[in-house]
Amino acid sequence: MPAAPPLRKVRATTAAQVCEHFDLDPEAKPLLSPKTSPRELLDELVEQKQFRTAIRFLAHALPHREAVWWGSLCVKHASGDAALPAAEASALKAAVSWVLDPSDANRNAARAPAEAAGIETPAGGLATAVTFTGGTLAPPMPKVPPVVPGPYLPAKGVAGAVLLASVKGAGAGIEETQRLFVELGTGVAEGRVTWPDVKPKAAGKTWGF
Q1: Do residues 58 and 10 lie in contact, with contact meaning Cβ atoms separated by under 8 Å?
Q2: Three-state SS across the chain?
Q3: Is there a contact between 162 and 70 (Cβ–Cβ < 8 Å)?
Q4: What are phi and psi of 205, to 5 degrees?
Q5: Whole-angstrom distance between the N-terminal and C-terminal Cα of the chain?
Q6: Residue 75, Cβ neighbours under 10 Å: how many?
Q7: Interval 120-156: pLDDT, tens
Q8: Does the global pTM surpass 0.85?
C-alpha cells in the first residue's frame, strides 16, 4: 500500500506539538506518542471515526489562511443549494476575501459582517476567526493598549465554525458530514485543495462565494 501523501501545509513535525494547543479528547489520547507524526494521528482518528477530534486537530495544525479556506469550503458545503441568509453570506464572503488577500484591510473588513452574523452561525464564527489573525481585541479607544489575539485563537474559531457547520448541513448525517469535512481539510493540508484550484474557471462556474 503506497504511503499517504505528506501534509505539506502543516508546519509541526509531531502531532504532540499540535495537540499542546487544544484539549485532546480522552479516547484519542492513546493514539498519541511523542513521535507520532501529524499524518499518523490524523489517519488514526479517521480510522477510528473520531471525526470531531480530527476537525479540531486540523484547525490547529493548518496555518491560519489554509484553515479559514477549509472552513469556507465546509460552510459552503453545509448550505447546499440553499442561499445563506444575507448576514451569513456577507460573513462568508468576508472570510474568503481575506483568504484571497490576507491584508489588514480585509481582516478589519471582516469585523462588521462577523458581528452581524454572530458566532452562533458557522459563517459568523469563521469571519470572527479572521478578525483574530491580527490587530487587537481591545476597542479603539485612546490610551487603551493593544490586546494581541492569542496565536491559536483563529484555530479555535475555525474549529467551532466547522463543527457547527457539520450539524447544520442538509442531506448526509452528522458523522458522514464530519468525515467529508476531514477529507476536505486533509486535501488542504496536503496542498491539493487550494484557493487557485477552486477559483471560477468560467462564467457561472463558481463555488457561490
Answers
A1: no
A2: CCCCCCCCCCCCCCHHHHHCCCCCCHHHHHHCCCCCCHHHHHHHHHHCCCHHHHHHHHHHHCCHHHHHHHHHHHHHHHHCCCCCCHHHHHHHHHHHHHHHCCCHHHHHHCHHHHHHHCCCCHHHHHHHHHHCCCCCCCCCCCCCCCCCCCCCHHHHHHHHHHHHHHHHCCCCCHHHHHHHHHHHHHHHHHCCCCCCCCCCCECCECCCC
A3: yes
A4: -105, 85
A5: 38
A6: 30
A7: 999 999 999 999 999 877 666 677 677 778 889 999 9
A8: yes
Look up residue 206 and give its amino acid.
T
Give the cell for residue 114: 462577523
All 3 cell numbers of residue 22?
487544544
Residue 129 dihedral angles phi and psi, to the nearest 5° = -60, -40
In the block, cell 490610551 appears at 143
